[in-house]
Amino acid sequence: MDFSSYEVGDFFDEMFEEDGTIRPHYQGIYERLKDLPPAEMLQKQKAVDRAFLRQGVTFTVYNDEQGTERIFPFDLFPRIIPGDEWETLERGLTPRITALNLFLKDIYSEQRIIKEDIIPRSYIESAPYFRPEFMHVPVPKDIYIHICGTDLIRDQNGEYLVLEDNARSPSGVSYLLENREAMKKVFPHFFPNTGTRSVDRYTEDLLETLKYIAPEGVDDPTAVLLTPGVYNSAYFEHSLLARRMGIEIVEGSDLVVENSFVYMRTTEGLKRVDVIYRRIDDDFLDPDVFREDSLLGVRGLVDAYRKGNVSLANSIGTGVADDKLIYKYVPDMIRFYMSEEPLLASVDTYVADDPKERSYILDNLANLVVKSTNEAGGYGMLIGPHSTRSEIETFRDLINANPRNFIAQPPISLSRHPTITEEGIQGRHVDLRPYILCGKKISILPGGLTRVALRKGSLVVNSSQGGGSKDTWVLYGES
Amino acid sequence: MLSRVAESLYWIGRYIERADNIARLLDVNLNILTDFKDLNDSRLVEHWEPIIRSTGDWDLFNSLGYKPNSRAATDFLTFDRSNPNSIISCLIAARQNARIIRDQIPSEVFEAINDAYLDLRDSGSDEIWKEGPYQFYNAIQNFSQLFQGMVASTVVRGLGYYFMETGKFLERADKTSRILDIKYHILLPRVQDVGGVVDTAQWTAILRSCSAFEPYHRNFATVVDPALVTEFLIFSAKFPRAIRYSLARLGDHLGRISRNKHDRFSNEAERECGRLYSDLTYVSVEEVLDQGLHEYLDYLQHRLNRVGGAIHETFFGVPD
Fold first, then answer.
1. Domain that residue A141 falls in
2. Which residues does chain B have within 8 Å of residue A265's beta carbon, measured at their own beta carbons?
3. What pLDDT does A65 receive?
4. How far is CA B75 from the centre of its chain?
5. Can you give the residue range of the structural domain that contains B149?
């Protein structure tokens, strides 16, 4: 592979210093890749793509007549994170997730954070994923978010910033696991020598987390994974996780609630279910309580949950914690609940609901990124500097019509990473999603999913919009 | 095991067995055409109509505007997605079920099914027709053998395995009865043709369609005789595609599913299967021929449907 024409540009580059020197932790991979003929790399890439298709490592593209399954494009150039840098991230993420769980417990009980004027009451109560009907409903071990996927980006100086906390039902971990498998197959000689930490423990830790939150008095709990079904875009992930944990993957119609206990229908009759790792949103869980038209859920499930007869991961109502408006207050939560200063920075956030900040936003739309507070997947977003006048005006109207629904942030020029493109190796923007489990202890999978915006110049890394992924190597630290 | 999962496994077994049988049926019957003298349109209709009838989809074939000839039969039975029993439809269904329950089967088994589907999806009927379909149908049969072999050597003997095998053997019993029934629909030109060259060729094709040509000869060491062919394909306890053999295995697997320790049935599925098996044990081929082969096969298919219905009721039914 030829690096001679690689341009670092005006961005923080993960591999190269500004002057083009290779960062020390990339030296090893550089030595290996520089002598690899591009044709061979291309061949490896094709082999991996074919293997993903064969193994059905695919996601379903909606609104496509054939219900096409596509592979999530995978770039063979790995992203490498030195051990000490990773430990710094862990030290920043751990109090953050702890504070989010304390916040949820508080907000669904005493609401001290409102009473002490840290967060305005109206912001909480207007959050669409705040569930007041679950006030004072206890959850096992006081943990609300068991599985969290926090999106991190790096700014121009290489500083890590939290972009958002995905506290409802974060997906993508299966790609991380499969990417590593694929890398081991195509570069079998890399791994013993790179000092890369294994990602294999994730599903074991996940299963332990699920069992830890079993209802009181259940010694040997039965956990299941609840999926919307085979047509869901993430079905592959659901089945991979269930397979690796050795638990049943169930659809709503497989479950039935009797006398406030949840059972699954088996060939030998009904079998009690204690913990549900649900990959469907709150809204679809139970047609008796939430959306009546939901065919995915289970009638009576919420009643069983309220009575403590079944545990859900994640708990109901966690969405208030990843509302993009509440995001602004997470550093305050860390200070409030833990009396600590946050170690991980956030992105400056302007709240359109606040009249002063709104007028700043409206005056500077062309220079800001505007986000809808409860959309995911890169939708409902305006990237001011890359938008047309009419797109900007559309957002101006949207913001004026419903200010609570929007926040704005300065654009961050995401770091770039060498990526294999048709025009050779070029820099492409990346982010990082570490996966955090909160059970008996907090464990962070050493790796995370690196998503890469494959389109030249693009800042959008979402799979639905031209994003791909990379294997992420976290190196063993000095300690 | 979840009822829904059990049902998916059962249908994987059925659909792959079905695809395999259709591939063999087409392979053999395209092949014997090459032995015919004076192959004209009406001979082609005589040849293909009974075969398409045997699949149970003759009405659909006509309503889709096909005329019975080799190309139409091939297209309809192989590539047409509007035929729910075409090979492509079977593979789509098998693969969709495999995706649903992929946590239950070894990865290599899933990949084999997925691979077969991807290959078939990417191959067009024009190109296969041009190259000659034999290789293609062989590839389908090879896939089915690969699948059976992988299942035999890698799947844990538990409920999942038993349900897959249940589906396979029920489908096989049904398909063998249908293939044998093809002979009924073929009208021989004249009475004196019975036992003649054409008649023998047709019985031979039936044996070959059940992969039974060599086993038949090994068993009887004699010419192809209608009564013996009938006996072999219905009553053999040793030939793995015979109806009685298939029912014996079906009964074994149903017993394992119910963990039936005593020699009485414990549910309707076992009862229906056991009764039919016991009939097949005590009925003679002479009785069958006296009654009329077609009538008997019709009755068999009706009984097999009842077994299938009972399996559904017993294990998959969603009570409301």
1. 85-167+197-338
2. 2-4, 318
3. 47
4. 19
5. 1-155
Are A360 and A227 members of one domain?
no
Residue A382 and residue A394: Cα distance in Å, rounded? Answer: 10
pLDDT of residue A153: 96
Closest approach of B103 to chain A, Cα-based (Å): 4
The answer to whether A265 contacts B3, with C-beta atoms less than 8 Å apart, is yes
CB contact under 8 A, B1 and A55: no
Q: Do B111 and A54 touch (CB under 8 A)?
A: yes
How far, rounded to the nearest angstrom, does the alpha carbon of residue A316 sit from its chain's CA centroid? 18
> Position of tokens 């290996």?
A32
**Residue A358 within any structural domain of the chain:** yes
Chain A residues with a Cβ under 8 Å from any Cβ in chain B: 53-56, 230, 235, 239-240, 242-243, 248-251, 253-254, 264-268
List the CATH number of the domain containing A267: 3.40.50.11290
Burial class (CB in 10 A: 0-12, 13-18, 19+), B220: middle
Low-confidence ranges of chain A (pLDDT < 50): 64-65
The H or E element containing residue A451 is strand A449-453
Let me know whether B162 and B144 are in one domain. no
Mutate to test the interface with B, among A235, A250, A267 (most CBs of B within 10 A): A267
Q: What tokens appear for A393 in the block?
A: 């005006």
State whether A136 and A281 are in the same domain: yes
Domain boundary, last residue among B95, B127, B155: B155
- Domain check: are A289 and A309 in the same one? yes
State whether B134 and B189 are in the same domain.
Answer: no
Number of domains in chain A: 2
What is the edge-to-edge ordering of all strands in the sheet holding A275-278?
A: A248-250, A223-226, A275-278, A311-313
pLDDT in tens, chain B (320 residues): 899 999 999 999 999 999 999 999 898 888 777 766 667 778 788 888 988 998 889 999 999 999 888 889 989 999 899 999 999 999 999 999 999 998 889 989 999 999 999 888 777 778 777 877 788 888 899 999 999 999 999 999 999 999 999 999 999 999 999 999 888 777 665 666 667 777 888 889 899 999 999 999 988 888 888 899 999 999 999 999 999 999 999 999 999 998 876 678 889 999 999 999 999 999 999 999 998 999 999 999 999 999 999 999 999 875 44
The ipTM (two decimal places) reads: 0.72
Token pair recorded at residue B56: 């149970």
Of B4, B107, B163, the CB nearest to A254: B4
Distance CA B151, CA B161 (A): 8
The number of distinct structural domains making up chain B is: 2
Give the span between the Cα atoms of A59 and A57, in whole angstroms.
7
Domain boundary among B155, B178, B194: B155
pTM for the whole structure: 0.85
Q: What is the CATH number of the domain that holds A376?
A: 3.30.1490.270
Q: pLDDT tens, A262-275?
A: 999 998 889 999 99
Amino acid code (one letter) for A261: F
Residue A128 lies in a domain: yes
Q: Is residue B123 domain-shared with residue B164, that is, in the same domain?
A: no
DSSP bridge partners of A150? A165
**Are residues B315 and B288 both part of a single domain?**
yes
